[in-house]
Amino acid sequence: MxxxxxxxxxxxxxxxxxxxxxxxxxxxxxELYSLSCDYVxxxxxxxxxxxxxxxxCPSYPKTAVSLVIQLxxxxxxxxxxxxxxxxxxxxxxxxxxxKRKFIEGKNLHGIVGTPAEVWQRGFFNLTRFALGYFQxxxxxxxxxxxxxxxxxxxxxxxxxxxxxxxxxxxxSASRLNSYKLAYEFFKGKTxxxxxFVMKADTWFLFPEYEEIFPKGNIHDFRxxxxxxxxxxxxxxxxxxxxxxxxKDLPTEQLPEDTSMQRGFKKYILDKKPFGWGYxxxxxxxxxxxxxxx
Length: 293
Known about the structure:
The protein is α+β, with helices and mostly antiparallel strands. Helices cover 43% and strands 14% of the residues. The chain has 2 domains: 1-126, no CATH class; 127-293, Aminopeptidase (3-Layer(aba) Sandwich), CATH 3.40.630.120. It has helices at 3-11, 18-25, 29-39, 46-56, 62-83, 88-109, 117-124, 172-185, 217-222, 239-243, 259-269, and strands at residues 128-131, 134-137, 146-148, 151-153, 161-163, 196-202, 226-233, 274-283. The strands form 2 sheets. A 6-stranded mixed sheet has the order 1-2-5-6-8-7. It has a two-stranded antiparallel ribbon with strand order 3-4. Strand 5, helix 8 and strand 6 form a beta-alpha-beta unit. Helix 1 (3-11) packs across helix 5 (62-83), helix 3 runs antiparallel to helix 4 and helix 5 packs antiparallel against helix 6 (88-109).
């Protein structure tokens, strides 16, 4: 296995899976590595790259082969980071999502490999970076006008969108640190250099879920955003994030091991609506201006 890839595997603590990765790579290392270089910055359609890789490794699931392509691609990705003067710290923080999605695949979906290869392409196209806790889509365009807390965003303006990765430190201090890192990273790249505006859209911002989060980190985060809209759904599409592979059990049999599980189980039994919340966050480099007292 290539030296750089092996070092990444060690950094991501994939040593238990090393034997599997070696088997997948097998006699096709050079071909797979070449495909992984094309995978970075989409030098050819990424769907085609993954399909070619799977054809070389027909005995293994697509999710596992996709993971190997991403691991091999970290070498070319690192080279692109260097060309763009992006720090090693941001690089290594960003690629931790490879291990994070592997764990999600195993615990939440019962699969080997990555369940989110298509979503993770943003990392390999240099359009998504992990800055502290949050991940930021750099080319996201605001879907609407937004005027508040000194911000004057027009529909179509570049407004980085944040993602909340599973695991990690979601504390107030960690979130604030991420906002500060992003404030510096995006200077000169957004609508002005004094205020940093972020788009935050997620299921746990749905207004009706307030009763499920009466305290804690999610409750505190809900108070940091300026909610501008919400949408109702017929089903709880994110149930896998709450109950993992047990999500399809009858409601009465769903586990109640965590406060979130207990809260959502009661919520479902009460036949309340499911949904998604849409918001903005305005930050001035030190203070979250949208934060409620």
